[in-house]
Amino acid sequence: MEPSHCKPFPEQTVLITGASRGIGAAIACRFASVGMNVVIHYLNSHEGANETARSCMKLGSRVLTVTADLRSREQIERMQEKLAQHDLVPDILVNNAGISHYGLFSDLEEAQWDEIMDINLKGAFLMTRQFMPAMIRQKYGRIINVSSIWGISGASCEVAYSTAKGGINAFTKALAKELAPSGVTVNAVAPGAVDTLMMAGFDEREKEMIENDIPVGRFGKPDEIASLVYFLALPESGYITGQIISPNGGWLT
C-alpha cells in the first residue's frame, strides 16, 4: 500500500547520474515513460544528455539536465540548488555514473586507482549524502546504486573497478539498515555483461568468449537493466532493501 505522505508515483522526481548514454539513458527513458520528472546528470557528454532529454520529453516527461563533477561536493551542491530553482526534489536517486579500467594490476597507476574510486564510490557517497536528507524528512525515498557483477565475484584485470563496485555493494547493505526506519530503501543492481560502450575495451573474439560463458547466450540490454531499477523504485517495492540484485543471464548464480 502506498504511504499517504508519498506523492503518486508519476508525480515523483528521479535523478539519474551518468544518464547521457547506455544504462543511464535507458533508466531515464523508463521513468519518463510514466510521465515522471526526470533529472539527467552528465559530466562532459552535453549532446548525449540532450539526446536523452529529447527522448524523455517525447514520452511526456518534464526533464532537466544538470552537469557536475561527482568528485566535487561544491559542484553537487550547486546541482541541488539548480534543482531547487526548478522546484525539483528527488524522491528517487539512481547512482549510475561510473568508469571502468581494464588492465593488469601491476600496470595500474595510483592516479587511475584514485579516479576509479572517486567517480564510482566517492561520487555515490557525495550524491547520497546530499539528497538523502529530503527523503528522510518526507519519510519516503528510493536510493538505487548501479553496481556490477564484478563487485560480487571480482574480475581479473579489473581489480580497481571490482574493488569500487564491491564498496558500492557494502555501502548499499549498510546504508539500507540505517535508513530503513525512515522509509527509505537502498538497493543495488549489479549487471553482468551489458551491450554498452563499457564493453568497448574488449575485441570481438573476447566478446564472443564472454557470450559463450553466459547461459542465455547473449549480452544484456540496457532496457533490461532499466526495468529492474524501475521495479525497485516503485512504492510497492518498499519491503525490498539492502539487496544486491544481479541481472546477468545466469552467468553468476
Notes on the protein architecture:
The chain has 253 residues and is of the alpha/beta class. It has helices at residues 22-32, 46-58, 73-85, 110-138, 150-153, 159-179, 204-213, 222-233; strands at 13-16, 37-42, 63-67, 92-95, 141-146, 184-189, 244-245. α2 (46-58) links the parallel β2 (37-42) and β3. It is globular and about 50 Å long. The mean pLDDT is 95.
Secondary-structure blueprint:
Blueprint lengths: L12 E4 L5 H11 L4 E6 L3 H13 L4 E5 L5 H13 L6 E4 L14 H29 L2 E6 L3 H4 L5 H21 L4 E6 L14 H10 L8 H12 L10 E2 L8
Parallel strand pairs: 1-2, 1-4, 2-3, 4-5, 5-6, 6-7
Helix pairs in contact: 1-2, 1-8, 3-4, 4-6
Number of extended strands: 7
CATH class: Alpha Beta
The end-to-end span amounts to 32 Å
Helix coverage percent: 40-55%
The CATH fourth-level homologous superfamily? NAD(P)-binding Rossmann-like Domain
Secondary-structure content class: alpha/beta
Q: Number of domains in the coordinates?
A: 1
Helix count, per DSSP? 8
CA-atom Rg in angstroms: 17 Å
What profile does the largest beta sheet have?
Answer: 7 strands, parallel
* Major sheet: arrangement of strands: 3-2-1-4-5-6-7
Secondary-structure element order, N to C: EHEHEHEHEHHEHHE
SS strand fraction: 5-15%
For the residues shown, what is the average pLDDT? 95
Which parts are unreliable, with pLDDT below 50 for 5 consecutive residues or more? Answer: none
Q: Mind telling me which CATH architecture this is?
A: 3-Layer(aba) Sandwich
Q: What general form does the structure show?
A: globular
Q: According to CATH, what is the topology?
A: Rossmann fold
Organism: Paenibacillus oleatilyticus
GO molecular function: translation elongation factor activity
InterPro entries: NAD(P)-bd_dom_sf, Sc_DH/Rdtase_CS, SDR, SDR_fam
Protein name: Elongation factor P 5-aminopentanone reductase
